[in-house]
Amino acid sequence: MRRPPASLLVFALCLALGLAGGLVYAWFVAPRPSSAAPDRLNPVDRDIYLRLVAAAYAADGDRDRATARLAAAGPDAAARLEALLTTDLGDGRPVADLAHLAAGLGLDAPAAALLVTPRPLPPATTAAVTADAPLPTLTASPVTVVNRQPLCPGAVAQQLVVRTVDEDGQPLPGVTITARRTDAAGNGATSTATTGFAAASDAGTADFTMQPGAIYVLELDGQIVAEELQLVACPDGGQGGWEIELQVRE
Amino acid sequence: MLGLLLGVGLGLLAGWVVWPAQYDSITPELLSIDHQTDYAKIVAAGYSRADDIDLARSYLARLGPHANNALRRAVDDDPAAARLLADLNAAPAAPTNLPVSPPTD
Question: Which whole number is the average pLDDT over B13-34?
Fold first, then answer.
Protein backbone atom coordinates (compact mmCIF):
# COMPACT_ATOMS: atom_id res chain seq x y z
CA MET A 1 0.00 0.00 0.00
CA ARG A 2 1.37 3.39 -1.04
CA ARG A 3 1.70 6.03 1.65
CA PRO A 4 0.48 9.53 0.82
CA PRO A 5 3.29 11.92 0.17
CA ALA A 6 4.44 13.94 3.13
CA SER A 7 3.54 17.21 1.43
CA LEU A 8 -0.11 16.12 1.22
CA LEU A 9 -0.12 15.33 4.92
CA VAL A 10 1.36 18.72 5.74
CA PHE A 11 -1.27 20.39 3.50
CA ALA A 12 -4.10 18.53 5.23
CA LEU A 13 -2.72 19.38 8.65
CA CYS A 14 -2.41 23.08 7.78
CA LEU A 15 -5.92 23.06 6.30
CA ALA A 16 -7.33 21.59 9.51
CA LEU A 17 -5.41 24.05 11.67
CA GLY A 18 -6.55 26.98 9.53
CA LEU A 19 -10.16 25.80 9.60
CA ALA A 20 -10.11 25.52 13.38
CA GLY A 21 -8.46 28.92 13.75
CA GLY A 22 -10.93 30.52 11.37
CA LEU A 23 -13.89 29.07 13.24
CA VAL A 24 -12.55 30.18 16.63
CA TYR A 25 -12.03 33.67 15.31
CA ALA A 26 -15.45 33.87 13.67
CA TRP A 27 -17.34 32.47 16.64
CA PHE A 28 -15.49 33.80 19.67
CA VAL A 29 -13.09 36.58 18.75
CA ALA A 30 -15.08 38.58 16.23
CA PRO A 31 -18.55 37.06 15.86
CA ARG A 32 -21.09 38.68 13.59
CA PRO A 33 -22.90 41.56 15.28
CA SER A 34 -25.81 40.36 17.33
CA SER A 35 -29.29 40.74 15.95
CA ALA A 36 -30.76 39.21 19.09
CA ALA A 37 -34.07 40.52 20.39
CA PRO A 38 -35.25 40.29 23.99
CA ASP A 39 -36.89 36.95 23.24
CA ARG A 40 -33.35 35.51 23.36
CA LEU A 41 -32.72 36.72 26.89
CA ASN A 42 -32.13 34.20 29.63
CA PRO A 43 -35.14 33.64 31.91
CA VAL A 44 -33.92 35.95 34.66
CA ASP A 45 -33.19 38.85 32.34
CA ARG A 46 -36.39 38.24 30.42
CA ASP A 47 -38.40 38.61 33.60
CA ILE A 48 -36.51 41.78 34.40
CA TYR A 49 -37.21 43.01 30.89
CA LEU A 50 -40.95 42.39 31.30
CA ARG A 51 -40.99 44.23 34.61
CA LEU A 52 -39.15 47.13 33.03
CA VAL A 53 -41.62 47.21 30.14
CA ALA A 54 -44.46 47.33 32.68
CA ALA A 55 -42.78 50.15 34.61
CA ALA A 56 -42.15 52.07 31.40
CA TYR A 57 -45.78 51.65 30.34
CA ALA A 58 -46.93 52.89 33.72
CA ALA A 59 -44.67 55.90 33.27
CA ASP A 60 -45.38 56.91 29.68
CA GLY A 61 -48.71 55.21 28.93
CA ASP A 62 -47.53 54.51 25.38
CA ARG A 63 -49.61 51.51 24.43
CA ASP A 64 -48.11 50.97 20.97
CA ARG A 65 -44.59 50.99 22.28
CA ALA A 66 -45.46 48.61 25.10
CA THR A 67 -47.11 46.27 22.60
CA ALA A 68 -44.01 46.30 20.38
CA ARG A 69 -41.74 45.67 23.34
CA LEU A 70 -43.86 42.80 24.54
CA ALA A 71 -43.88 41.32 21.05
CA ALA A 72 -40.09 41.51 20.99
CA ALA A 73 -40.01 39.43 24.15
CA GLY A 74 -41.42 36.44 22.30
CA PRO A 75 -44.75 34.81 21.62
CA ASP A 76 -45.12 33.60 25.18
CA ALA A 77 -44.43 37.00 26.74
CA ALA A 78 -48.07 37.49 27.69
CA ALA A 79 -48.17 34.15 29.45
CA ARG A 80 -44.93 34.95 31.22
CA LEU A 81 -46.33 38.32 32.23
CA GLU A 82 -49.31 36.70 33.84
CA ALA A 83 -47.09 34.16 35.56
CA LEU A 84 -45.05 37.03 36.99
CA LEU A 85 -48.23 38.73 38.09
CA THR A 86 -49.44 35.62 39.86
CA THR A 87 -46.07 35.02 41.48
CA ASP A 88 -45.78 38.58 42.71
CA LEU A 89 -49.30 38.48 44.09
CA GLY A 90 -48.45 35.32 45.98
CA ASP A 91 -45.27 36.87 47.32
CA GLY A 92 -47.03 40.04 48.38
CA ARG A 93 -44.98 42.24 46.05
CA PRO A 94 -46.45 45.29 44.33
CA VAL A 95 -48.19 44.27 41.12
CA ALA A 96 -49.71 47.54 39.98
CA ASP A 97 -47.40 48.01 36.99
CA LEU A 98 -47.74 44.44 35.74
CA ALA A 99 -51.50 44.49 36.22
CA HIS A 100 -51.74 47.86 34.51
CA LEU A 101 -49.75 46.58 31.53
CA ALA A 102 -51.75 43.38 31.23
CA ALA A 103 -55.03 45.26 31.48
CA GLY A 104 -53.90 48.11 29.26
CA LEU A 105 -52.88 45.80 26.45
CA GLY A 106 -55.97 43.67 26.82
CA LEU A 107 -53.99 40.55 27.59
CA ASP A 108 -55.86 37.47 28.60
CA ALA A 109 -54.80 37.69 32.22
CA PRO A 110 -57.61 36.95 34.68
CA ALA A 111 -55.52 38.19 37.59
CA ALA A 112 -55.11 41.56 35.91
CA ALA A 113 -58.81 41.76 35.17
CA LEU A 114 -59.54 41.24 38.83
CA LEU A 115 -56.97 43.77 39.95
CA VAL A 116 -57.65 46.55 37.50
CA THR A 117 -61.35 47.05 37.18
CA PRO A 118 -62.28 49.98 34.99
CA ARG A 119 -64.45 52.41 36.84
CA PRO A 120 -66.00 54.63 34.19
CA LEU A 121 -67.36 57.86 35.47
CA PRO A 122 -70.89 58.81 34.51
CA PRO A 123 -71.09 61.09 31.50
CA ALA A 124 -71.83 64.71 32.09
CA THR A 125 -75.49 65.49 31.76
CA THR A 126 -76.67 68.27 29.50
CA ALA A 127 -79.80 70.26 29.69
CA ALA A 128 -81.72 71.71 26.78
CA VAL A 129 -81.88 75.46 26.91
CA THR A 130 -84.90 77.30 25.64
CA ALA A 131 -85.69 80.97 25.65
CA ASP A 132 -88.16 80.63 28.49
CA ALA A 133 -86.27 78.12 30.50
CA PRO A 134 -84.16 79.23 33.42
CA LEU A 135 -80.42 79.11 32.97
CA PRO A 136 -79.13 75.61 33.59
CA THR A 137 -77.22 75.01 36.75
CA LEU A 138 -73.77 73.51 36.50
CA THR A 139 -73.79 69.76 36.64
CA ALA A 140 -71.98 68.48 39.67
CA SER A 141 -68.66 66.91 38.84
CA PRO A 142 -68.46 63.16 39.56
CA VAL A 143 -65.20 63.80 41.38
CA THR A 144 -64.85 66.17 44.30
CA VAL A 145 -61.68 67.09 46.14
CA VAL A 146 -62.70 66.73 49.77
CA ASN A 147 -59.28 67.25 51.30
CA ARG A 148 -55.93 68.58 50.16
CA GLN A 149 -53.12 69.01 52.63
CA PRO A 150 -49.32 68.93 52.80
CA LEU A 151 -47.83 65.64 53.85
CA CYS A 152 -44.87 65.86 56.20
CA PRO A 153 -44.69 62.55 58.00
CA GLY A 154 -40.95 62.04 57.64
CA ALA A 155 -39.88 58.93 55.79
CA VAL A 156 -42.65 59.01 53.21
CA ALA A 157 -42.76 62.77 53.00
CA GLN A 158 -42.03 63.24 49.32
CA GLN A 159 -45.11 61.39 48.19
CA LEU A 160 -48.21 62.44 46.38
CA VAL A 161 -50.80 60.31 48.11
CA VAL A 162 -54.27 60.11 46.59
CA ARG A 163 -57.16 58.60 48.53
CA THR A 164 -60.39 57.85 46.75
CA VAL A 165 -63.62 57.29 48.62
CA ASP A 166 -67.17 56.70 47.55
CA GLU A 167 -70.18 58.73 48.60
CA ASP A 168 -70.25 56.90 51.91
CA GLY A 169 -66.62 57.67 52.59
CA GLN A 170 -65.52 54.11 51.96
CA PRO A 171 -62.18 53.51 50.19
CA LEU A 172 -62.52 52.86 46.45
CA PRO A 173 -60.04 50.33 45.06
CA GLY A 174 -59.26 49.97 41.35
CA VAL A 175 -59.43 53.66 40.47
CA THR A 176 -56.72 54.69 38.02
CA ILE A 177 -55.11 58.03 38.80
CA THR A 178 -52.84 59.85 36.37
CA ALA A 179 -50.16 62.25 37.51
CA ARG A 180 -48.69 64.55 34.86
CA ARG A 181 -45.38 66.04 35.82
CA THR A 182 -43.50 68.97 34.35
CA ASP A 183 -39.96 69.44 35.62
CA ALA A 184 -37.98 72.64 35.87
CA ALA A 185 -36.59 72.17 32.38
CA GLY A 186 -40.09 71.91 30.96
CA ASN A 187 -39.90 68.18 30.31
CA GLY A 188 -43.13 66.36 30.86
CA ALA A 189 -43.85 62.82 31.99
CA THR A 190 -46.96 60.93 32.93
CA SER A 191 -47.39 58.28 35.60
CA THR A 192 -50.41 56.24 36.44
CA ALA A 193 -51.27 54.35 39.59
CA THR A 194 -54.25 52.31 40.59
CA THR A 195 -55.72 52.60 44.03
CA GLY A 196 -55.38 49.56 46.18
CA PHE A 197 -51.70 48.86 45.60
CA ALA A 198 -50.00 51.48 47.72
CA ALA A 199 -47.85 49.97 50.43
CA ALA A 200 -49.19 50.21 53.97
CA SER A 201 -52.32 52.06 52.93
CA ASP A 202 -55.97 51.30 52.56
CA ALA A 203 -57.64 49.95 49.45
CA GLY A 204 -58.53 53.37 48.15
CA THR A 205 -55.03 54.80 48.11
CA ALA A 206 -52.51 55.30 45.34
CA ASP A 207 -49.23 57.13 45.64
CA PHE A 208 -46.56 58.73 43.51
CA THR A 209 -43.03 59.75 44.34
CA MET A 210 -42.64 63.49 43.88
CA GLN A 211 -39.51 64.99 42.39
CA PRO A 212 -37.96 68.23 43.53
CA GLY A 213 -38.74 71.09 41.19
CA ALA A 214 -41.48 69.27 39.34
CA ILE A 215 -45.09 70.46 39.20
CA TYR A 216 -47.83 67.88 39.15
CA VAL A 217 -51.33 67.75 37.76
CA LEU A 218 -53.64 64.99 38.91
CA GLU A 219 -56.26 63.54 36.60
CA LEU A 220 -58.98 61.00 37.04
CA ASP A 221 -60.59 59.69 33.87
CA GLY A 222 -59.27 62.68 31.95
CA GLN A 223 -60.65 65.18 34.44
CA ILE A 224 -58.14 67.40 36.19
CA VAL A 225 -58.77 67.15 39.91
CA ALA A 226 -55.73 68.97 41.31
CA GLU A 227 -53.08 71.23 39.83
CA GLU A 228 -49.91 73.06 40.80
CA LEU A 229 -48.79 70.36 43.18
CA GLN A 230 -45.15 70.46 44.13
CA LEU A 231 -43.00 69.66 47.13
CA VAL A 232 -43.63 71.91 50.10
CA ALA A 233 -41.37 73.00 52.94
CA CYS A 234 -42.06 71.08 56.13
CA PRO A 235 -41.61 72.37 59.67
CA ASP A 236 -38.67 70.01 60.20
CA GLY A 237 -36.79 71.71 57.36
CA GLY A 238 -37.37 68.88 54.91
CA GLN A 239 -39.64 68.72 51.92
CA GLY A 240 -43.09 67.22 52.02
CA GLY A 241 -45.58 65.93 49.53
CA TRP A 242 -49.33 66.18 49.32
CA GLU A 243 -52.30 64.15 50.39
CA ILE A 244 -55.36 64.51 48.23
CA GLU A 245 -58.68 62.92 49.07
CA LEU A 246 -61.18 62.50 46.27
CA GLN A 247 -64.80 61.55 46.54
CA VAL A 248 -65.97 59.71 43.44
CA ARG A 249 -69.68 59.49 42.77
CA GLU A 250 -70.77 56.50 40.75
CA MET B 1 1.09 27.66 3.71
CA LEU B 2 -1.59 27.36 1.05
CA GLY B 3 -3.42 24.81 3.21
CA LEU B 4 -3.31 27.14 6.19
CA LEU B 5 -4.71 30.09 4.24
CA LEU B 6 -7.37 27.95 2.66
CA GLY B 7 -8.32 26.54 6.05
CA VAL B 8 -8.59 29.97 7.64
CA GLY B 9 -10.74 31.17 4.74
CA LEU B 10 -13.04 28.19 5.01
CA GLY B 11 -13.22 28.61 8.79
CA LEU B 12 -14.20 32.26 8.51
CA LEU B 13 -16.77 31.47 5.84
CA ALA B 14 -18.26 28.75 8.01
CA GLY B 15 -18.21 30.84 11.18
CA TRP B 16 -19.60 34.04 9.72
CA VAL B 17 -21.93 32.85 6.96
CA VAL B 18 -22.79 29.16 7.10
CA TRP B 19 -23.00 28.61 10.84
CA PRO B 20 -22.84 32.05 12.45
CA ALA B 21 -22.71 32.36 16.23
CA GLN B 22 -26.09 31.78 17.85
CA TYR B 23 -27.39 34.04 20.58
CA ASP B 24 -29.59 32.11 22.97
CA SER B 25 -30.22 32.58 26.67
CA ILE B 26 -28.19 35.75 26.55
CA THR B 27 -27.73 38.67 28.88
CA PRO B 28 -28.83 42.16 27.77
CA GLU B 29 -25.27 43.06 26.77
CA LEU B 30 -25.60 40.68 23.82
CA LEU B 31 -28.82 42.20 22.50
CA SER B 32 -28.67 43.94 19.15
CA ILE B 33 -27.64 47.58 19.18
CA ASP B 34 -31.21 48.73 18.62
CA HIS B 35 -32.55 46.62 21.44
CA GLN B 36 -29.78 47.76 23.77
CA THR B 37 -30.87 51.33 23.06
CA ASP B 38 -34.49 50.48 23.70
CA TYR B 39 -33.51 48.70 26.90
CA ALA B 40 -31.86 51.90 28.08
CA LYS B 41 -35.04 53.83 27.21
CA ILE B 42 -37.14 51.39 29.20
CA VAL B 43 -34.88 51.77 32.20
CA ALA B 44 -35.07 55.56 31.82
CA ALA B 45 -38.86 55.48 31.62
CA GLY B 46 -39.02 53.36 34.75
CA TYR B 47 -36.64 55.76 36.46
CA SER B 48 -38.84 58.72 35.58
CA ARG B 49 -41.53 57.07 37.65
CA ALA B 50 -39.69 55.45 40.53
CA ASP B 51 -36.82 57.93 40.87
CA ASP B 52 -34.55 55.20 42.17
CA ILE B 53 -31.11 55.99 40.76
CA ASP B 54 -29.47 52.90 42.23
CA LEU B 55 -32.10 50.61 40.76
CA ALA B 56 -31.78 52.27 37.36
CA ARG B 57 -28.01 51.98 37.58
CA SER B 58 -28.22 48.28 38.40
CA TYR B 59 -30.53 47.64 35.44
CA LEU B 60 -28.28 49.56 33.09
CA ALA B 61 -25.29 47.65 34.37
CA ARG B 62 -26.84 44.53 32.86
CA LEU B 63 -25.88 45.99 29.50
CA GLY B 64 -22.27 45.52 30.56
CA PRO B 65 -19.71 47.63 28.74
CA HIS B 66 -22.39 48.80 26.30
CA ALA B 67 -24.45 50.59 28.97
CA ASN B 68 -22.87 53.96 28.48
CA ASN B 69 -23.26 54.03 24.72
CA ALA B 70 -26.77 52.58 24.82
CA LEU B 71 -27.91 55.32 27.19
CA ARG B 72 -26.25 58.03 25.12
CA ARG B 73 -27.97 56.75 21.98
CA ALA B 74 -31.26 56.76 23.87
CA VAL B 75 -30.72 60.38 24.87
CA ASP B 76 -31.02 61.45 21.25
CA ASP B 77 -34.80 61.12 21.18
CA ASP B 78 -35.82 60.39 24.74
CA PRO B 79 -36.00 63.14 27.39
CA ALA B 80 -36.31 60.54 30.14
CA ALA B 81 -32.98 59.06 29.08
CA ALA B 82 -31.43 62.51 29.08
CA ARG B 83 -32.63 63.05 32.62
CA LEU B 84 -31.34 59.67 33.74
CA LEU B 85 -27.94 60.35 32.20
CA ALA B 86 -27.78 63.74 33.89
CA ASP B 87 -28.78 62.26 37.23
CA LEU B 88 -26.23 59.45 36.87
CA ASN B 89 -23.52 61.97 36.23
CA ALA B 90 -24.66 64.07 39.17
CA ALA B 91 -25.18 61.19 41.56
CA PRO B 92 -22.41 60.21 43.96
CA ALA B 93 -20.21 57.42 42.72
CA ALA B 94 -21.67 54.04 43.43
CA PRO B 95 -20.18 50.57 43.14
CA THR B 96 -21.20 49.93 39.57
CA ASN B 97 -19.58 49.20 36.30
CA LEU B 98 -21.62 51.79 34.49
CA PRO B 99 -19.25 54.30 32.99
CA VAL B 100 -20.34 57.79 32.14
CA SER B 101 -17.47 58.58 29.84
CA PRO B 102 -17.89 59.97 26.33
CA PRO B 103 -19.27 57.51 23.79
CA THR B 104 -16.86 55.40 21.85
CA ASP B 105 -19.04 54.04 19.08
Answer: 87
What does the radius of gyration of chain A's CA atoms come to, in whole angstroms? 28
Residue A4 in any domain: the answer is: no
Phi, psi for B100 (deg, rounded to 5): -125, 35
Per-10-residue mean pLDDT for chain A, 250 residues long? Answer: 77 89 85 85 93 89 89 89 84 81 74 52 42 42 78 70 86 84 81 74 81 85 82 76 83
Range of the structural domain that residue A232 is part of: 143-248
What is residue A128's predicted lDDT score, i.e. its pLDDT? 40
Residues A102 and A164 in one domain: no
Determine contact, residues A86/A98, Cβ cutoff 8 Å: no
CB-CB neighbors (< 8 A) of A4 in chain B = none
Give the whole-angstrom CA distance, residue A99 versus residue A84. 10
The CATH number of residue A242's host domain is 2.60.40
In the prediction, which pLDDT does A200 show?
60
In a domain? residue A243: yes
Q: What are the DSSP E strand ranges found in A54-156?
A: 143-151
Together in a domain, A70 and A109: yes
Binding-face residues of A in 143-172 toward B, CB within 8 A: none
**Predicted local confidence at residue A154, as pLDDT:** 59
Across B20-24, average pLDDT: 81
**How many structural domains comprise chain A?**
2
Same-domain pairing of A109 and A153: no
Which residues numbered 171-210 in A keep a CB inside 8 Å of some CB on B?
183, 187, 189, 191, 209
